[in-house]
Amino acid sequence: MRARREALQAADPEFSLRRLAQRVRVEPSYLSKVERGLEAAPSEEKVRRLAEELGENPDVLLALAGKVSAELQRIIRRRPQVFAELLRELDEAPDHAILRVVREVRDGEW
Amino acid sequence: MRARREALQAADPEFSLRRLAQRVRVEPSYLSKVERGLEAAPSEEKVRRLAEELGENPDVLLALAGKVSAELQRIIRRRPQVFAELLRELDEAPDHAILRVVREVRDGEW
DNA sequence: TGTAGTGTGTAGTAGATACTACACAGATGG
DNA sequence: CCATCTGTGTAGTATCTACTACACACTACA
User: Fold this and answer.
1) Chain B residue closest to A91 (CA)?
2) Does A40 have pLDDT greater than 90?
3) Largest CA distance in chain A
4) Does A70 touch chain B (CB under 8 A)?
5) End-to-end CA distance of chain B
6) Which end of chain A is more exposed for a tag (fewer CB within 10 A), N or C?
7) What is the pTM of this model?
8) In angstroms, what CA-CA distances link B86 with A37, A100, B19, B79?
């Protein structure tokens, strides 16, 4: 995350830690610690703002923060049994197999 | 949950609120409040013990507690992008469609 | 009629979470 | 040389989470 920000900063001073912190609405010192992993991860809201600013995938950044988005949790909680089974089954499946399922569903092959 | 316990209690006094609370390792007054939804849901550990005692599906009970098991969260966090896509796509799919995927994976059709 | 069980209400709390506030030291440019 | 930028260290804190402790009122039964 730090690397990502520094890369952007090289091209645009708007990505200094302080400026970014302001846009994300946290204290610079806090962001500094978060970037270096000294502080526990921020809330989902702040992580999302960070992802947006840095052009990163929110789900990935949330995962780095040790979280799963509230939205995905809601999806699972609506039908805990089916989704629990599905996830446990797919835990060891390769990425491409999972993505194949996604495509099949998307293309309406049901 | 209360209904479930009371059903079991009718057949076996070991399922009184107090006895059950003791086995689950919480205070009876706390369990009472949880059963009536007056108190925020207990920790995953207690919910699991409750599920075991009541013969309920842990994932379902966790869902009622507004939670998703740490195990499932880990699975998602390992590969946030694929699983996020998958879950969002399957959110509106009918149960049988999801279970079909589970069976296909299980039967090794990959 | 006491004692052993039942569920419940009130009050308090240790520890975690998610931060803020502010001071400080070093680099840079006018 | 000082004003302004940079990142960082220390300290403190409000809010939430997940409970415990204990007293109370009721019922049953011996």
Assistant:
1) B75
2) no
3) 51
4) no
5) 40
6) C
7) 0.90
8) 29, 10, 42, 11
